[in-house]
Here is the input.
Amino acid sequence: MKGIKTLVSFTAIAVCLGAASMVNAATITPVNTTFSAPGTITVKSPASFNLPVTCNITFTGKTAANGASASITAATVSGSNSLCGVPVMQNLPWTLTPTSTSTATVSGVSFSVISNCGTATINTNYGGGALTVPSAQAVGSCSITALSVSPSPTFVITNP
Here is the structure.
């Protein structure tokens, strides 16, 4: 009987903590708004013999009506390096989900640079109006070693 009471108590605590974390989820404003996020990205891939290639990139998408996420619906890559014209973005839309006022994850990231790199969830930092990667982020056989894009309109990420 004591074991059942302990189990019920732990279950109640877990449910309360889970509900509390959902209530305190970070949100993006402005809500329900289309955005463009131009900047630069540096990728290492087998196509570049794992040497870093820096290109211009522009993400476009829309923030969710409840501010819980943003949907990245397109990404355009360009630049003077001939490899900048090669990437094919896959698995769009990708979902940007704020995890705090200064961090977010982007899930479903998938692209190919001549061959398929893979799919991953990447970690990002957000501050000063720019979304960046804190360190190299593996996407299958490729890696994003640097990213800096500035959403317009500027995102404001808050914890309620």
